[in-house]
């Protein structure tokens, strides 16, 4: 299949949920993908109107009208569907798409948790059918990249889990930190909550404010624990705090763990650089330097830094991503690239926008 | 002395460092103090010019010219001096003021650490003379309130330590958490860094950015450890991360510790409400609710909430203050009130500005 | 009546619309009013629940439950009602309150426009009965202060009109500028749009964005034109642009007009200082200095500056207020003070919060 | 020459001022230019150190060390130089580069004003030699595009003039508005002031603040007047206000003028669409819709909307750009493309980053 598509024979994709932030970000990024053409932008509301009406930044860039949600129509128009739909919607839509012969990259949380019961405990609605859970490949690219080749259903990781797992897995896999001691203090910009309106996204409530929410209750917890358990070879339970930063984009995950030895910052830098060798989108900072969210703004990078503390025997790991890109649309495209056997950075060569 | 001063016989205070953020915040708050009159606003630069020239928000409110730094002059004009001067400056200035017979409330870090050697390790300049360190009373009002009565030198706590210690000490004192397990993930608005200009306070570098700094190296660490050790009755070493939030005011300290028992949120709420009974400025949120920084903006409150997690055996404690008020100028005035035997909330009855 | 109320015999007020931003700002400011007690906080929704549940910043400050909207009950509990209700609601509620014998200060636009037809053209719903329009006194304090004494219905000016009219009326009255040439470029923080949720107050849509809305269509236009016509002695038509600034509070009105003579900045400064002599809340900047919105944040000031340009024969007048205070709740309290014959700054002695 | 360079024979460029915001934005954008290679990144300070040290967002993207400022060296390494240097520096540097045989695109204000005396009045330092002023082509691409072909010195327009002139020139050229009546109320994000540190770029002073500066004194006034005079065929004098918005990027120019006829919004839309036909980077909004700065964030677009007001006979024109892109680095690259005879949007196909 890698040979099938190219600059002169572009692959056709459809985007469901095009009027959410994940959807418009896919549209932005796919503008520069050399092998892909957006065949259909789809929204359950507003079908029949130009997408640029609700998103004037797309004026003269995307001139298509929005299509309605219809699996058969998608199968006619496209080869691959990005489902940028909410949890609880994907679980119903994706099976239809699969059955219609489409390949699907799902950005919701619905196919990430392998155990349906665990899903239902945290998500509070019914899990998808087991056979689709089994079919779904968890697409944390730098960790599970190989598995997504030729997959027909990729479950794109959550924003918090992406930043957190890329920051923890090398150390857990190496046995350098005690998995039982992991504490994750995570912070996100507001776009992560989507375009829906509520008091918690009201400008006057968020601006000049910093607040915690869903402490120890966030639905990304089982996703993180599932992947860490795989790396550790034993069950892992984490303490996980989510907090809202008065900014639009960006996640920082600040992670704490007890070290199993007297490792230095330099040791961690070397371990991680080896682990991520050849993976362009993870950038490990030099010892003594920690990344800031703005340093990855608008791009697909995940930047990581360390502070190993001999005084306390703990290491602090800091990992940042743009939640809209590496934490959603960008990683979804990276997964498409890997699925198709293309170079993983096709269409993702964005330099961070700074300042 | 409580009888000496009042609405008709106001106490005269001088403010050194009036053109810094701590200084102008003292000026703002003291406008509504019924027993205090600002006799002199002092700055090492700009003496002889009206303070409203550099701070137009004070137009028609403070019409005095700035005075220069002169201990004898201060002693003539005032009874009490607020030293809102940087670390390294206070250590030299304060002894002169004391010797001139003034009472001093010092907002710098110079007199907080009882052990001169520890001070020098973290602050990287010489400690004040030992006799002044001994004379200085650490003024974390709700903890050490009684000690400051009639003190002649009060060392006003740091912003991070205030939020952190008010959040930790009741649990540490009660033996509910393991002091060895304490991890503090702290976040601050930019005003905490003062009015000096540098890349780290440049708008375009901070806006839409979240960044960590001085990880495990912040000079507030020994101040926190000193107070926790006192509460725990044993040495305490903490992991401490400081992070910059794109906002002007506000600190959140998110604190993690291993619980020594199966305590619930409600248990913590009750413990803390008892501990802080009668202390108006600490507000303990109901179980399941966590405070946000905007809920204390512009006011002297410290609001605290809890998330005790049976899954992990850890508790997450969240404490917020306005770094300029409870974290600096407000607590300094509260210390003045306590020192004078006045009601502690005189001049501090500000409702938070919301939104 | 001035003798009736005082610190020991506080006047009782009710606030309708207590869960909107105007309402909570009234609550904040009235905390420090020496002669006033809040007898009832009222909301059409949430009656029976504590107001601090929705506004945790009021924890331990306002412990009352919300009351429902009931004119008879208000008349029993209170002497004066602040109606912080939306346009279209006040027009129906206020007559009932008046008939129940209450004095009312209405913060909506419903009683500002003397001509019902003009009201309906701009507001798109029915005007109040003519007799209430006639009873209502327009309370732009520094201009119409005298008229509100003993009024039973005060119509509190709009936020944009307050900044704009305080900036224009002295020059128009003096005949220094041509009323036909007036262009007003106004900017506001987001709180002006209230606490209702919509895309236009969504954080991710507003942050790092500057946008115009309702250009030449804003309902504050007839209010501005009505007052300017009175000052000019002839009908006035203005060009008026409203724009949203990514901040919570603050309005700047930048105003342009052709000068009728060769006036200098200094001339304007002197004219305005004379005009506003004795009125504490208008502060006229020195020549060559223009006010910024942050210089009045949280306070009842309106600050004004000038740039008279000999090259073009035009003057630029810049006026700033905090839209929540001088543009709403603060001026409403100022109106109460004037109505009662009290000093106009009672309960309004807030120094701007800076930074 | 168009044939000379291409994907396999990239043109080599040098960037002087690489550590300023204009410089790093050139670096960001040029990453995706198919025909261009950055041969040298140059800074008067920090030569010899990796640029990614000061700009970690460039980690692994630009691995070069900074070069010092040396015309001969540049001539060896590069064909074209972007001078992203401050006014007063370019005037001295550019002649040396020209004499060394380089083509130069200068982003400063030094070569924009054809009359040296006018330059010195507004810029307060000596103008460049007259022969270089004459050689310089003013590169407002959509207006003067043809002139820059084969130019050896292009003077890249200022940020405010770009937004303003693209918004005014079609109407002035068509005689639809009276040039003598033009009033420009301009607003900019903070990045426009550069990376230098000062109180006016201090986060705590800018955040939650809106302020005017250099009212009627901004050095972009003569640049605007020079171009408008050319379009009008007579001298033009404008009223021009510059204001700082608490955001990083974005300029809105809100422009007012007396109409010479009874034109409607639709008339203006049609006039402007015809004027800019075939010019991809100017997008004219439909009648009744006005652009917001975020709708062009990170991109080279200039979006324009209208409000023609029959009540007042005036039109309000609203024009937005990203000051870093269309207002600086983007237009500079567009000028390079035009100079080389390439398609004007090469390397500039960035969809705005939204939200």
Automatic annotation (TrEMBL), chains A, B, C, D:
Localization in the cell:
Cytoplasm
Q: Record's InterPro entries?
A: AGPR, AGPR_AS, AGPR_dimerisation_dom, AGPR_type-1, NAD(P)-bd_dom_sf, Semialdehyde_DH_NAD-bd
Pathway it works in: Amino-acid biosynthesis; L-arginine biosynthesis; N(2)-acetyl-L-ornithine from L-glutamate: step 3/4
Q: Which GO terms describe its biological process?
A: L-arginine biosynthetic process
Its main subcellular localisation, reduced to a broad class, is: cytoplasm
Q: Which family does it belong to?
A: Belongs to the NAGSA dehydrogenase family. Type 1 subfamily.
Query: What is the name of the protein in this document?
Result: N-acetyl-gamma-glutamyl-phosphate reductase
Q: Which gene encodes it?
A: argC
